[in-house]
Amino acid sequence: MFDTISVPDQALRSRVTTTVMGTPRGRSFGRLIDTAAWIAACQGNEAPRPFSQARTLVVAGDHGIATRGVSVFSPTDSVTQAEEILAGGGPIQTWARMAGSTVRLIDVSLDHEAWGGERVSRSCGAIDVEDAMTPEQLQRAILIGKGLIDAEVDGGADIIIPADLGVGNTTVAAAVFGALTRTEPVVAVGRGSGIDDEAWKTKVAVVRDAMFRVRDVRDDVYQVLTKISSPCFVVLTSMIAQAAVRRTPVIIDGAFPAVAAYAAERLAPGTKEWLIAGQLTPEPCHLVSLQALDLTPLLALDMYTGQGTGAVAALPLINTAAQLIADEMEAAGESS
């Protein structure tokens, strides 16, 4: 499904680190050094450059399990939030304006009457009792994700922020994560949108039943995605993998994109080398997915807003790290 992924220039990454660490105040920059060195390696530059063409792609979709009461939001809230974003509102639009990123909403599977080149279905199957999608819909979702990234990169994007919107997203993330990593539902499931104990028990039961349905195929990532993820999850997974194929850095936000990134690494090895974690949420599957990808989040705001807000919040820090280290390297060169 995906072309071979090349690794960012590790020799260049090492040179940047060595140069900065050799300056009088280099060590004082802490983890910003590695962040900037990673940027330089991804860009193929001797010194890192701030990103100027950030693209936030909010992939929206609904889930059949949203009617089970696994969220404080009602199933219809996904469409409402999507309309808010399209009108220029919502948390992601605020963050993006401040951080300098464009925002695009992709309606993959929201539960309303619509069609277009980026649509796969109207909502999807309730994963505790039925498949999320057909194999044909999986294929379509993968192609949509790849096409979205190709269009953005060809249009000049230099960093991608894959974002999510959909009631029930963390339930799907926990189910996919639990199945692929053989993690018990009670360990994988968090509070999501801020649910109470009774709703958490329901969410655990949904995840448990979904994981049981794929117990015999859990080593086949495509089968797991077909049966217990969702079209919007697959589009997100495909986007992340294709961005790595196109040698374009990606900022990961919350649990849904993090588990999608984990799935992308399973489908397209080497994807993780092009990822940076923007933030950490309270969701258990988020933390463990980042650990599996060898990623340390830049921010820990306990924010579970979704829509890519945590990743966009980290963008100014990432750009500042690039400029700070570039300036330090230039000063070191002038003094030598």
UniProtKB/TrEMBL annotation:
Gene Ontology molecular function: nicotinate-nucleotide-dimethylbenzimidazole phosphoribosyltransferase activity
Entry keywords, A to Z: Glycosyltransferase, Transferase
SUPFAM superfamilies: Nicotinate mononucleotide:5,6-dimethylbenzimidazole phosphoribosyltransferase (CobT)
EC number(s) on file: 2.4.2.21
Enzyme class: transferase
InterPro entries assigned: Nict_dMeBzImd_PRibTrfase, Nict_dMeBzImd_PRibTrfase_sf
One matching Pfam family: DBI_PRT
PANTHER family: NICOTINATE-NUCLEOTIDE--DIMETHYLBENZIMIDAZOLE PHOSPHORIBOSYLTRANSFERASE (PTHR43463)
Protein name in UniProt: Nicotinate-nucleotide--dimethylbenzimidazole phosphoribosyltransferase
UniProt organism field: Corynebacterium breve
